[in-house]
Amino acid sequence: MEDLREPVSPTGQFLESDFLSLCIIGVLEFQVPIHNLPIVSLVRDAFQSIPRFTSIMVVDEKGVKRWKKVEVKFEEHVIEPKFSDAISMEKQYGEYLSGIAMEKFPKNKPLWEAHIIKYPTKNAAGTLIFKFHHAIGDGYTIMGLLLSSLQRHDDPSLPLLFPSKSSSSSNNSNKLFLLKILPKLFSITFNSIVDFGWSVMKSTFLEDDETPIRSNVEGVEFLPTTISHISFSIHQIKEIKSKLGVTINDVITGIIFYGIRLYMQDTDYKSGKMKSTAMAIVNTRNVKDYHTVQDMLKTNAKGVWGNHISYMHVSVPTLQDYPISNPLQFVKKAHNSIKRKKNSFATILTEKLLRMEHKLKGSEEVSKNIHRTLRNSSLLISNMVGPMEQMALANHPIKDLFFTLCGLPQSLVVTILSYMGMLRVTLATEEGFIDERKLVWNLNKAFEEILHEAENV
Questions:
Q1: Residue 288: predicted pLDDT
Q2: Residue 369 phi, psi (nearest 5)
Q3: Are 367 and 19 in contact (CB under 8 A)?
């Protein structure tokens, strides 16, 4: 039994069960062909020292899920598909990516794989796709892993730089402290009770309406998806941010909400008045920057390895509440909602509740609860910060990168990643239900209208 290591973390158990199995897909798009990229040796160098990548998940005699050390044949985890010249390369690539998202990992191998696409697509001369089970780690972990394996293209000896997260300074003088702290404590307490109560209701009986972005089909997580993209200039996003006095996250969330409502109105006019809720993923680590793999694996690391995430519910404003002619209100509503959620302990309380339920009822019941919470909402939004400079892998420059999530019981998943001055928004949509081209068009329209209105403020 010496090969049985520590138990799988509670969150890892929640995310791998009979009710829920979530995975992260990260995609690197290269500027040059990658025919000579030594991917097997690169993956071996990056992964072999990390326990999660050399272990499988097993159940011991007491029914506890544990990580079990196994011998890894790295070449078996690297897959190179063969495409046909007779069929559109874009069609084959899209179907292949959708297929990766739908497939489950075999239980007798570590829960990850790499796919190397040597064929050119409209976005890249070559593509490298990584799929990781969420039990291995969250987006922060995976991004830190990838960044530990990549270098700056212009000068590999220099570290990768990330956008600074400036925080607004506050003047807590002794004279004003008591005047500020008491109302703030009351506000935090009130918001925490209301938001936590709403989160509990969303996890049980409070369900979003069926709309053009929520089919409510049983087993939607097992259906094919279509991956689409939109890119926005961070410089222009910052212009809107400065004019409205909000954050970049507020701006992009407002654009997404407004674009979704425009799409819903184009598809079904009545749906513009229906209830829709977004689940926003929150990193609970008290860190601003990514850490190296070596630092994350340390016992007392701030950016510790694993799953340290929670979520908050944010209502998508209706066109009934905010007229279609006033798109800036969607950004302001996103700002107020997110600020309110942050001025609350609801996400912490939600995490504590899940841990308590785990102790009382077991991981399967918690997983069932999370599945129901996801299913009761309309979409999930996850946001990651990427580097400002171009990266390279083994001297192969990376033109762009994105990530998405699979295994979610939702018709729409939105993921956002910044890279080299651009924000890339990735849409994973239920194939045959959501018109991804119309949705992309409406999101671009939302951005243009919000930018135009902000410039005239």
A1: 67
A2: -65, -45
A3: yes
Q: State the number of CA atoms in the 13 A half-sphere of 255 facing the CB.
A: 33
pLDDT at 360: 85
pLDDT at 199: 74
Distance CA 217, CA 253 (A): 26
Q: N- to C-terminal Cα distance for the chain?
A: 67
User: Looking at residue 182, what is its pLDDT?
Assistant: 52
Amino acid, single-letter form, for residue 261: R
CA 204 to chain centre: 23
pLDDT of residue 169: 41
Length of the chain: 457
Indicate whether this model's pTM tops 0.85.
yes
Q: Tell me which residue of 404, 402, 408 sits closest to 382, measured CA to CA.
A: 404
Q: What is the pLDDT of residue 374?
A: 93
SS (H, E, C) the chain: CCCEEEECCHHHHHCECCCCECEEEEEEEECCCCCCCCHHHHHHHHHCCCHHHHEEEEECCCCCEEEEECCCCHHHHEECCCCCCCCCHHHHHHHHHHHHHHCCCCCCCCCEEEEEECCCCCCCCEEEEEEEECCCCCHHHHHHHHHHHCEECCCCCCCCCCCCCCCCCCCCCHHHHHHHHHHHHHHHHHHHHHHHHHHHHHCCCCCCCCECCECCCCCHHHCCEEEEEEEEEHHHHHHHHHHHCCCHHHHHHHHHHHHHHHHHHHHCHHHHHCCCEEEEEEECCCCCCCCCHHHHCCCCCCCCCCCCEEEEEEECCCCCCCCCCCCHHHHHHHHHHHHHHHCCCHHHHHHHHHHHHHHHHCHHHHHHHHHHHHHHCCEEEEEECCCCCCEEECCEEEEEEEEEEECCCCCEEEEEEEECCEEEEEEEEECCCCCHHHHHHHHHHHHHHHHHHHHCC
Mean pLDDT, consecutive 10-residue stretches, the chain (457 aa), reads: 71 88 96 95 91 90 86 95 90 95 93 96 95 91 83 88 56 46 62 71 84 95 95 96 94 96 88 86 76 72 74 85 79 88 76 81 88 94 92 95 96 96 96 96 96 91
Distance in angstroms (rounded) separating the CA atoms of residues 445 and 272: 17
